[in-house]
Specification:
Structural class: alpha+beta
Radius of gyration: 43 Å
Order of helices and strands: EEEHEEHEHHHHHHHH
Number of strands: 6
Shape: rod-shaped
Distance between the termini: 138 Å
Strand content: 5-15%
Helix content: 55-70%
Length: 398
Amino acid sequence: MFRTYEEEDLRGMTVTSGCVTITKDEGNLIGISIGGGAPMCPCLYIVQVFDNTPAAKDATLEAGDELVGVNGTNVKGKTKVEVAKMIQATKTEVVIRYNKLHAEPKQGKSLDIVLKKVKHKMVENMNSSTADALGLSRAILCNDSLIKKLDELQRTEDMYRGLVDHTRRVLMGYFDLVRVCKELGDEFCKIGVREPQKAANEAFCEFGEYHRQMEKFGIRMLKKTKPILNDLGTYLTKAIPDTKLTIKKYADVKFEYLSYCLKVKELDDEGYSYQALQEPLYRVETGNYEYRLVLRCRSDARKRFAAMRSDVLVKLELLDNKHVQDIVHQLRRLMSSLTAFHIDCHKLFDGVKLFPIEVELARTLTAFQYQQDNMEEQVNYDMCLRKMNLKLVMMKTF
């Protein structure tokens, strides 16, 4: 004898009734699998709604919902095989009455599910021999290739970080170089200004101006290449971390889905063992609501898993394309800027003949000697003034 509906253990969930008409596909299927039914369970329920089927496209029936009637016939007390044949007997459309199970996902997230999730995270990074030695089963989807993308992303991140650091050091080297060019230009211009001979004066001043011009070319080149570091930094600090975070979220959803799959299998095994012993199982006799709740949670977790997997695949594809295109584009920008700088500097001295310079050392020495004599006279004059001031102070004292 089955328990009555009032005696069913709803486990805090609510049930509402409804009816839906589903048109079959070309394979004479609506896309659901059925569980429960006589002789062990008082009700029949949907175990799974398959993707891209009439039932999935209609989106009314969900895993865990109870089947009450098919084409106006009450299915209470029938086996799942009998109900499947009733659905198959209909040629085009099937009218299904159902009891919709309303449950919050957190109701099915028990401590057992959390522990299973932790276990899957541990097993994920183990090889088969280690897992077998520890007595841990390796569920399907472990060693997911998308999870292993984290290692590849880490290598890409390290490569980009090294590229950014090297580029920054190169540009800093060029900055130091152009500063030296400016200082050299200033010094040569000072030498030229002090040079009394016209030819040497013009040569040194022109040579100094060339170095000052090189400094201007270098600053212009650095202004053009600075955005390259920002662009590479954006890829490094935003694109890669965002993708890594998405993969970690995907892994978390995947482990939760695996945990519900394992829970369903454990409940199935428990039911089969009691059925083999012909012993009653309380949760089955009272409507199997615990099992149906886990089925609903597994279905929801699978939807999140599929959505996250699709999101990860899209982001990885975009990241790969950006990686290939961006790094080539940025390196071309960098090399073109450096090439333009070297070409501009080469044009400055191309065909210019400033040296050797003919310098009359006698005139140069005379000019410097005159300057030196003036300096000595100035020093002697200053010393005389200081002595006179000292004598006046001593006289006033006495």
